[in-house]
Amino acid sequence: MSPTILWFRQDLRLQDNLALHAAVARGGPIVPVFFLDEVGEGRWPAGGATRWWLHHSLVALDASLRERGSRLVIARGESEKILRHLIAQTGAGAVFWNRRYEPAAIARDANIKKNLAAAGVEAKSFNAALLHEPHTIANKAGGPFQVFTPFWRHCLTLPVAAPTKLGAAKLIAPAVWPSSLALEELGLLPRIRWDAGFAATWTPGEAGAAKRLRAFVVRAMAAYSEQRNVPGIDGTSALSAHLHFGEVSPRQIWAAVQSAGKDSGVFPPSKGAAVFLSEIGWREFAHHLLFHFPRTPEQPLREEFGRFPWANDPKNEKLRAWQRGRTGYPIVDAGMRQLWHTGWMHNRVRMIVASFLVKHLRLSWTHGAAWFWDTLVDADLASNTLGWQWSAGCGADAAPYFRVFAPVLQGEKFDQDGAYVRRWVPELAKLPAENIHAPWDAPLHVLAEAGVTLGKTYPHPIVDHATARGEALAAFKALRQTAAMARDSGA
Prior knowledge:
5% strand, mainly alpha, five-stranded parallel β-sheet, DNA Cyclobutane Dipyrimidine Photolyase, subunit A, domain 3, 21 helices
C-alpha cells in the first residue's frame, strides 16, 4: 500500500482523530505533516498568542507520534505546493485531513481536493472539530439558524457519535522520511519574551487537554452554572484553546460528561453539566454562523450597523488605554491585564470589556476583535466574531442595543470581595471591597491608607459611565431611526 499523507491543522491530537483513524485503516505507511501556510489563512493568519500555543502543541504532538514510531514533518509555504512535493518524494497515494470551517480554509481545501483527485491521488477530509457540521444543520425553512436557543434545541435532538480510540498500535513509518524543517524555523515564539505568564498558566497538547478536562468534570462541573460567572475563582473549564487547536474534541467532552452521569443514568448529570454543554453549543453556533455568513469577520451580520456612528479617536488614546488596562474601571482593567499576562480572559469579563469598548468608548467592535485575535491563546475566528458582534448588538442573537454593562455593578456583583481585581490590578489591592470597584468614590483617607493616588498610581476613569451610556443609547436610537427611514423609502 502506498503511503498516506496525514495533514494536521487544528486537530493536534491522536485520539478521536478521524483522518488519522482512516489513514490507519487504509494501511501502509503514514507521513504526518504540518504546514505553516500563512497566505492560506487569508486575512486572518495566526496572532502572536496562538502562535505561541501552536509551537508548544506541535512539540507535544511530535512527541506523541515518536512514541508510536513516527514523527511530524514540518514545512512552511503554500499547502498545495508542499503536498505535491511530498507526494513526489514519498510516492503517497492518499492525503487525508480534518475539515476546517473558516472561509479561506474552505476555499483552499476545496481547491486542493479537486486538484489532487484530478492527479489520481485519493483526497479525503473528515469532521473532527464539531458535533454537527454547519452544512448538516438547517431551520424549518431550510436556512441557517440565527438565534442560539432554537439552534441548540435542534442539535440536542441529534445523536452524538462516540469518540474513536486509536489504541496502542505503532504507526507504520515510510521507508524514507521526507525532509523537514526544525520547529524553531517556523519562528512561532516571540523574539521579545512576553510569554512568561503563558508558560506558567498553560500546558498545550493532547495530554494537557485531557488532564484539564478530567479535573473540570470532577472538580467544577456540577457548580458550573453558578461559578462560571465569578472570575476570582477557578470555576470554568478553560478548555477553549485546547478545543481551538483540536487537542480535545467536542465528542470527547460530550463523552466525559456522559461518563460523569453513568451511575445515576441521568444526562446531563447536573444543571452545571447542562450549562457547560450549552457553551459547547455556542461554539457550534459560532461555526454555523461563520460558515453561512462568511463576511462577518469584517462586516456586521445586521447590515444596518454598517452605518453606526462610531466615536472618533484619532490618536487611538482611548483604544490604547483599553488595550493596556488603564481605563480607570478596575474590572475592565483587570480583564485586559489578565489577557496580556496569560493570553486568556474569563468569559464574564470578556463581555464586560467588550461592552465597555463598543458602548462606553463607542469604538468599533472590529478594533476589539483584532486585539483579541492577536492576544488570545484561544483566538478562534468563529467564536471571536460571534462574541464581538453579540456585544456590539450587530450579530446573530445579539445583546439588545440598550444593554450596556455597568462595569462597577458588574464588578460588585461578580467579584464581590475584589479577589479578581486585587490579583490583576495590584495597585488597588489594599482597598476594601466596598471601594475597590469604584476607587474614585472612596474617601481620601481610605485611598491614602491603601497607597492609591488617583491620576498617579491608578488612572481616573477615561469616561463617565452615565454620560457614556446616554451617548451610546442615543447613537443606537439614531441608527434604528435611520434604518427605519431606509426601509420605508425602499433603500
